[in-house]
Design brief:
61% helix, 6-stranded mixed sheet, 8% strand, single chain, alpha/beta
Length: 1022
Amino acid sequence: MAVLLPDLFRPVLAQQAEIQPGEAEELFERAWTHYLQAEEEEAIELFQLLTRHYEEYQNWEKMIESIIMKAMSGQRLGEMDRVEERVERAEMLARDYLESGHQIWSRVYNVRAYLAIDQNDLDEALEWAERSLELIYRFEGLEDRKVRTHSVHGYILDARGQYPEAIETYTHGKELARQIDDDREQSFAMTLILNNLGVTYRKYGEPEEAARYYRMNREYLEKLYHSNHPEVAMNYNNMGGVYYNLGDIEQAAQYFLQSARILETNYGRGHRNVAIAYNNAGSSYAVLGRLDEAIRYLEEALDVTVNLLGGEHPDVAFRLANLAGIYQQRGELDTALEYLDRSISIRETYYGDDHPSLASSYIRRGELHMVMDEPTRALRDFEEVIRIGRDRLGFNHPEVAEALVKQGDLYRGKKRFGQAFEMYQEAIVRLANSFESRNIEDNPAVLESSHPISLLKALEAKASLLTEYFLVNRNREYLETSYHTYELAMELIDDLQLRFQHEASKLNLLGEHYSVYEGAMEAIYNLWRVSGDPSYLNSAFAIAEKSRARIAVELLRELEAREIAGISEEMLEHEQVLNEQIAAIHQQLAMEREKENEERDPSRISALQDSLFVVHQKQQDWMQIVEEEYPDYYEIKYHRGLISADEVRELLTDEEAVISYLMGEENVYATVLSSRDLTLHKLGPSGDVPQKVEELLTAIDERNSVEYRRHARSLYQNLVEPLDERLTGVEKVKVAPDQLLHHLPFELLLSAEPEDAYAHEWGYWIRDVSISYIPSMSIYRKMREQTASPDDRMLAVAPFADDGSVVDGPAELRSYTEEVTPLPVSRFETEQITELYRTERRFWNPFAQPRQADIWLNRQATIPNLLAHDLAQYRWIHFATHAFVNESSPELSGIVLAADLPGPSEEGGGQNVLFQRDILNLNLNAELVVLSACETGVGRIARGEGLIGFTRSFIYSGAGNLVVSLWKVGDRETSDLMIRFYEELLSGKGKSEALRSAKLSMIEQPEYAFPTNWAAFILFGS
């Protein structure tokens, strides 16, 4: 309703020649409402009319107040010249018509203070604010005026880096605000104070306290403003800052962008606050490694800031420092250093050389000097941070702790271990609550910290140095302390991952700190070698589990929690709707971003981002309600228990073994677990393993037998041969790969030196064992627990089964399906498979009734048809179609189905791509899902999580086992392999043995024996 006020009121203004005395109060109230709703032009128009009225009736106090309100609206619009002009007029009138001690002077002084801030004179600004405070306290009451004055005073103290003093004056203002009787005036006063308290607490290194005040402020904002009000936008910006400090970077980026969109709607693209929000969004994307987006937002923020404030303003300094980080990531070190030097120079000129805001730039420059191998300069920068911290920031500020860690790194590089240990331990003391020990052997008993990311870095640095120091003095106690410290770091990663809202933030956390798992494995390997204690092997297995597929485990645990907690159907349906909305918006957004620049629609991207933000907020509200009303759900979801080695043994037969790989920056490790024993192996340097895998896959693609044999044998020697002794008697191997090993079918490795013979005679490892794959053993357990449909039914889907089949879905999807061609062999494949399934008699019961099998060909195989059926009734599901993978945007990976025919009123067909997020929302109950399509087993590989692709989506949606492909295979070869696989499977063999038999039968045929034809398809599960 507030948005409509200007339109409703304007006709009255046009006809009104003058304001009657009794109408002025109502009109002032309307003008004030426009000001509150950020309708600046309407507010200025009304205050201008009131100014003329009050001048006519010589009501000088109200006239001056109207002029000041015009100045404040102009300040929001960035019209600083007009602001100064209006303030000067207000001063002149106050001198001419009011006594020198009139309370209205406090308003004038406050605006003067803001003008001084914009003119880079903080000393003058503080003088104006203090004069305002001294004057307003001469009067009884006037709590609302006093609150505003405290807000101005605290803002200036904050800008000067005097954070404790700013908090003190804001807190005093908050108590005054509680005394205001008028509800709206109180809400307005509280929004001023609570927002500013949050800002200062964040700068002072207390993000959780900041978040508390921002949330309190949100309640008052909702009373005052509509959802697109600039104050709401600033609240989003500030909440983004909290999430950024806590490491939830994707969540932070969404808040920053939503803030920018609201501010831009109100003020246009060239406003100072829009630049601030874009700067923050750019900084977030830089952390996430999305450098193109980061640069776009940061450079735009810099241009706006320079245009508004000139090239020497502190806001420019912040922009330069953030851009320096981008250039450093790109390897343009000289440019990065130039930007940082200029940033520091501007701030020193403006604030002096001890301002707290300098600390972050000194840290960045110190890190840059370390990269440039200039340790002396780096050390000097870190010492500057510690000096500023001692004088201005306080004992436990995260930037001081970070500087201590960096100093420790420098001392470690010089082998000055004692000083390095001292720095690391001091940093932990400053970051961990209620921990005071400077003894390097001690660690915090409880991981409570306002700065968990900084604490994580300090713990990892200490643990890594302890392992290195053990190699110098061979003291086992250092190794034990190292491993205990790594345990704390892994626990902290777990805590953070559960707190973060968005998957991108979780992936960034795991990727940035994957070295924690490598370091822990190195420490446990040395402890086991030194002590011979088998309990360390159980710890090694636990590390391997913790280092992989944690987000996937969390998703599956969440599903289990919902089933056990008894959440109402209504609540679950509401969540399903939200998930579907999020999936649809993500896909539309990703598709729009993928377009060429000239075709991309920025307004549509902005609208989609708005919608996504709103739906995510609703999803968070849903989660909060569920966790409050269903305590069992909360308990189960956040139970961190991963499967233990002993629990795995109960799942294995005597012929089975599990190999879990961990690929670190320096070494490759493997644990081998069988029903008999558990062993840990350090397989050597990891350096050239990724290159060997890439060259092997290239050789397969090019059918280069010489290069294939060389790399297939070498990788076997690297990754499997050291484990041979532990695999004696093993017939079935489950491989839990890591990083690029997800793209390697281990069955094509050569377990024997290849003679110069034909491909069907080579010693493939598949000749020795059957091999299946698992993301982790914890997920494998969940897959085994999946209850298959009691209806023994199969569904086979072949949307391009005829020569004339085409893709004619919506235009925006055609760029993703333009290479789709008919797959006439898929008709034969699906008909043969379904016929086998129908007619097969269970070998133990020849009198059993035929099984049921549905086959959807061509126009039957549409997404609407798929979603209209109860997929949970199918025990086996087979897709014979096309698929495509987008590694940069996994949400755009999809399985292609037939386009839905348009209805009478439709111009085009429906969606014909089943995207990954669509798959997540399916409700399957399948013992086996087969994706007889190209590259369905690949996707984006994320450190610490593994493969993000179709595999994870189908497991989450209810697939107990999954057959996927790792590269493109000819449709005839695919069909041949699939039919053989089902023949073996329906004869009574297990799934991995059936797939192995099918592959071996192809190897025996010389024309199919090269791995290109048979190795692409692999089994996830049992």
